[in-house]
Amino acid sequence: MSQHSPPKRYLSPLRRVSPESLAGLVRGRSNSRRDTTGGTRLRGDSRGTSAILGTMLAFALVVSLIAMVQVSAVPAWNKQTEFEHLTAVESDFAAFDESVSKATDGRQTRATIDAGVNYPTRALFVSPGSGSGSLKTTDSATASISNAVATGETGTYWDGSEHTFDTQQFRYHPDYRYLDSEPALVHEGSAQYTAYASSEVGATQSLIDGQKVSLVFLEGDIDTATSEARTFSVTPVSAGTDYITVTDTGTPITISVPTRLSEDTWRSMLADEPNVRSISYADGTDYNTLTVELEPGKTYDLRLSRVGIDVPGSQSQPAYIVDVEGDNAVVPPGATHRVVVEVRDAQNNPVSNAVVKASPGLTAESGRVEARDTGAISTTTDADGRATFTYAATSSLDGVVTDQFDIVVEDSSGTNVDRVTFDVHLREGGITDPIRGLVAAVDDPGFVYADVNGNGEFDGADYRVYDTGSGDDVVYDAGSDRLVVPPSVGPIVADGDITLEGDGVSLHVDAVTTGSNSDLTVDGNSGTVEAVGVALTAVKGDDIEVTGDEIDLSGASINQGDKGDVIVSADGDIDIDNAGITAIESNQEISIESTDGFVSARSADISGNGDVTIAGEDGVDLMGAAVSGVKDNRGLHVESATGGVNLNGVVILGDGGVEIDAEADIYVVGANIASSKGSNNANVVITSDSGMVSGRQPAISAKRDITITAATRIYLPDSSIEDRDSPELNAPIVEV
Fold this sequence. Notes:
- This is Big-1 domain-containing protein.
- Keywords: Membrane, Transmembrane, Transmembrane helix.
- The chain is mainly β.
- The chain has three domains: 220 residues, no CATH class; 110 residues, Sandwich (Immunoglobulin-like); 249 residues, no CATH class.
- It is built from three helices and 64 strands.
- The strands form eight sheets. A 14-stranded mixed β-sheet has the order 29-28-31-34-37-40-43-46-49-52-55-58-61-64, with no helix packed on it.
- The N terminus is likely disordered.
């Protein structure tokens, strides 16, 4: 039987110390603290208590630090967040301003404003919930324009009277909690800015820019507060794609707009505008009113637009109608004449889908008016606000007849809003040769005189005008009065210059220059020149020149026999019916030009050895006329910038090129148009920029090329058109 050792017992180090050693250890540690009696006492162990207090102290420190950050740093961080949001929303507002600009050009867009600020979530710290912002279109206020007179066809509406317009403002106001001052972002149509309690920053304006005046009227129905980003449409209600030219009535043009932008800021923005004559500012309850007065005596380009904010695109209502083409036209019997109207709204912009009617459809002279696209008396305007009507003249006429008809525009309720009247002049055959002296003075005193009151009689304050020319020159000058040369004076013949001048001239005698360098001048300045049936001749001299506001040379004979030009120039109408105008010398020009009127040259005979130009801003009538040029490096030109050209029965024969260019219709019934030489410029070019080239049985020929271009139609039945290869005919509809 094996013998086992007793099991080992493991003792802690303290258990293995003997009692004597332990007592000595205790005695040694307690020697450091003795009481006053010299004895010893034991001290309790406080290490556990110190650890708890340290932990509590550290926790209190952390809590204090968090509180300090919450009180001081978190508001600063949130203020920075609001500032960054303001910067971003100002960029949104700039994009909104760009959308407004696009809408004024007719483009619909969308814009977004991030209305509310989102404060970031931070561990251990407290941040507020998302902030909100308010978006609002304000109540309507009134803008106005006074004393503006438009040039051209819009002058019937823009006649100097006051025009008023409703407009609103668009405002964004954020609800910030930390920024010291809460701004408002404002768009007033023609100005935008950021407004604080006592100042504005970033203000810009588009109201006045040199001689351009642009007003943008806002309309909408937004009134909301949200913490989300808000997207809305920006719609062109009336797109101001065109400027109109305006001037003042003698009283300066004034423009008034409602505003909340301060007077100082407006004055600062307009300080460098040279055409701003004065600024006034009136405080109001809801709006203030800025009034700008423009420098008088200048022309300005005026553009008006209306922009909708989060509203459906609405039909702009008609305000007025204008004639674009076809008024005061000369129409032969049985012919069809085209007229074009345009309907515009209060902002002067085209109105599409407006109802327009011929009233009445059958005129007093039995001409019939109907819409070209419907064949009825009524139609609607196209995308450009225009509508085309045709006037069919009666084929039976007795002499010269003036006919008249109206085109009216209706609003959406069927009420007539406005009308435009067209006059047409119906003429049968040629014009009877006028009688010399048709405008002779009623009372002929036997000498040249100044007709102060313009009644054609020598009476009252009228006075004799003496020849003040020196040497071989003859000069009769009535200054600011009308010059009358009555029949009793007899022909005026001079070896030097002949000058007849006044504020208007009535000439009833022939005038002849015989000198080699002599000019013959009839100058009516701003008055009319009447020289019916007279002869103006330069035997071997220089220019023959007739100028005035309007000129009547019907039946006259103008003959340049040597080295000068023939120039007939007027601002208004020129009448040379049945006249004979000749320039014999090589390369000398014949120029007949009305810068703002109509040229009538029916049955006239115009022959040159250089360039021949006949230009009438409102139209040219060459019915039955003969126009020729016998120099192959020169051209024949017939032009009308805004009207049409009547070439019915004309004979145009040029050795050089023939160019006929009109904005409106060109009629060539029975016309004979030819370029007979083969030089490089000897082409025949006929162009109607917005109308048609029309007429039965024309004969058109060229040694080189023929090009006929029309915006709507080429209608030349039974025609003969011949060039060196094949003519070029350009139009949507070609009937030849």
